[in-house]
Design brief:
Order of helices and strands of chain A: EEEHEEHEHHHEHEHEEHHHH
Helix content of chain B: 55-70%
Radius of gyration of chain A: 22 Å
Oligomer: heterodimer
CATH topology of the largest domain in chain A: Rossmann fold
Number of strands of chain A: 10
Number of helices of chain B: 10
CATH superfamily of the largest domain in chain A: P-loop containing nucleotide triphosphate hydrolases
Number of helices of chain A: 11
Largest sheet of chain A: 6 strands, mixed
Largest sheet of chain B: none
CATH class of the largest domain in chain A: Alpha Beta
Strand order of the largest sheet of chain A: 6-7-8-3-9-10
């Protein structure tokens, strides 16, 4: 459970705050996407969640622990795992196994317990066979799964991801999201930043940050369908939503909260059959 | 690549890294005062250990290649500039090869070559993880001086971890420079230095940026300086005690 109260964060007093008066609460097991233009405060916000940054004003509470208190940092960082954008910059170990063992080692667990956690974490992300490999020899998707395994070995409740797929190819992106969704189904809270609106649409809740303020916090169907508004913030609404909106503007009776090709196809084909029906109904009268 | 770890299974590989570190250090110290016959004995011993490690002897020899020019110079210096009784047929006017010079040249250069070879065999039979873990254990007494062996081991292991990334980064910078028309085959010392300067500054600033990000990632995973635990635990086996005993005997024998 995450509670953010009146959070303001200032990097530099000469500039406007990176985050301004954010109020937010995230329940256990939620699946949250954070979107917003660059410099909007997305990364600053998630760095507050594992105490890499602490509030200038206001409070951040993770499971009843305030990030303002340095004594809580160890436990907060165990509870909140973080994945960064560039997979290469988060590898610590010389082998895959060693890398996963880094977190549990920081917790001071016994070698036997570390081994058990390493094995189960690698099995959870499907990298068991690669335990002895050098991490830099893995593919981008595998590296991000390795990073996830490194977090799982610490038994976290919340996983925060900063554009985890931005540096990956398409197959790597699918690979990572399949893994993230699996973890979400197991009851972990997932919070991720993305530039890709199609990825954002997969979440149960979308937060929009603009100039350090939380300007929207709702279900993807409510947020991602506001095409004009998203464009005014400099964000690109999902292509399918744009298509549906154009059709609607042209007078077709169609829903706009469509995020996958399957549903779009369904909607459009009902529309087309309806039109065809109307045409065949009209024809005899014309003749 | 010389000095690179050969993941094999041999009695030498299986030895505890602490024993190997101690052995290399001890042998290095003992070698410094070795005479020609004991040097010959040490070389035979080394060839035997190298054979027992199943690593190719050629790989050990390759590791000597980069230091060879230096040792050739050293050899020549000892050969011609040691006073003593001149050898017949090998003296040309003022330049004289002496009996003592020849012996000195062979022993001194032989010692250093053997040291480099021993270090190379050590890294070929001990993985970076083992080296780090072994050093961490051996350095624990430094706690008395307020130094944390855990922090030192972390630094060493991060250095190892950065090597492959360093190579990748270097290649991509080279390619970026080539793509903009840089001539990477500049001849002459001045040209080479200019080239290196361009590479080094970019590489250093890139590495600093990467380290910054790595620090965040490490903190996010709960890193804190000071005591921590490890996946691999070290424990002495019978063979380790055997080697330690043998080392003690050799050390005592040489000392007396």
């Amino acid at each position: 459970m995450i509670e953010i109260k009146n959070l303001t964060y200032i990097y530099d007093t000469q500039q406007s705050p990176a985050l301004e008066n954010i109020n937010l609460s995230i329940q256990p097991g939620e699946y949250v996407a954070i979107i917003g233009p660059n410099g909007g405060g997305k990364t600053t916000l998630i760095r507050q969640l594992n105490a890499l940054l602490t509030p200038t004003q206001g409070e951040v509470w993770i499971d009843g622990l305030s990030t303002g208190n340095v004594k809580n940092h160890k436990e907060i960082r165990r509870l909140v795992g973080m994945i960064f954008q560039n997979p290469d910059d988060q590898i610590v170990g010389m082998t895959v196994e060693e890398d996963v063992a880094f977190g549990p080692g920081n917790l001071g667990l016994s070698p036997a317990e570390i081994q058990r956690r390493v094995d189960s974490a690698l099995a959870a992300v499907g990298l068991s066979e690669l335990g002895k490999r050098a991490p830099h020899a893995l593919s981008g998707g595998q590296k991000q799964r390795l990073a996830l395994a490194g977090l799982l070995a610490m038994d976290p409740k919340i996983i925060v991801l900063d554009e985890p797929t931005a540096a990956l190819d398409t197959s790597g992106q699918t690979e990572v999201f399949r893994q993230i969704e699996k973890l979400h189904q197991q009851g972990l809270t997932i919070i991720f930043i993305t530039q890709d609106m199609e990825e954002a649409a997969r979440a149960d809740r979308v937060l929009v940050l603009h100039q350090g303020r939380l300007v929207a916090d709702d279900h993807p169907a409510q947020v991602l369908t506001r095409v004009e508004w998203l464009l005014s913030l400099g964000l690109a609404p999902p292509r399918l939503v744009q298509l549906m909106c154009r059709l609607r503007e042209s007078g077709f009776d169609i829903g706009t909260d469509v995020f996958d090709v399957e549903r779009a196809c369904q909607q459009i084909s009902t529309l087309v059959t309806g039109q065809r029906q109307m045409l065949t109904d009209q024809k005899p009268r014309e003749v | 690549m010389p000095f690179q770890y050969y993941p094999l299974d041999s009695p030498v590989h299986r030895l505890d890294p602490r024993v190997k570190i101690i052995a290399v250090l001890l042998v290095s110290i003992l070698l410094l005062k070795a005479s020609l016959p004991s040097l010959a004995a040490a070389t035979v011993g080394f060839v035997f250990i190298s054979w027992a490690s199943r690593t190719p002897l050629t790989a050990v020899l390759k590791s000597l290649k980069p230091v060879l020019p230096f040792f050739i110079c050293l050899f020549i210096l000892y050969l011609f500039f040691t006073p003593g009784s001149p050898l017949p047929y090998l003296s040309f006017g003022p330049v004289q090869v002496t009996q003592e010079g020849l012996t000195m040249a062979i022993t001194q250069v032989g010692k250093f070559l053997l040291l480099v070879a021993a270090a190379s065999l050590f890294t070929m039979t001990t993985s970076p993880i083992e080296i780090t873990t072994g050093l961490e254990r051996l350095l624990r007494p430094l706690k008395v001086f307020g130094l944390s062996s855990h922090d030192l081991a972390m630094m060493i292991s991060l250095a190892f971890r950065f090597i492959p990334q360093f190579v990748i980064e270097l290649n991509s910078i080279r390619q970026a420079q080539q793509a903009r028309g840089a001539d990477l085959n500049e001849s002459g010392i001045a040209g080479k230095i200019r080239l290196m300067a361009g590479l080094a500054s970019t590489l250093t600033s890139n590495m600093f940026r990467r380290s910054d990000q790595l620090i965040d990632a490490m903190e996010a995973r709960g890193y804190h300086p000071g005591p921590r635990t490890y996946l691999h635990n070290l424990c002495f086996r019978r063979s380790d005690y055997g080697v330690l005993a043998a080392l003690t005997v050799i050390a005592v024998a040489v000392w007396l």
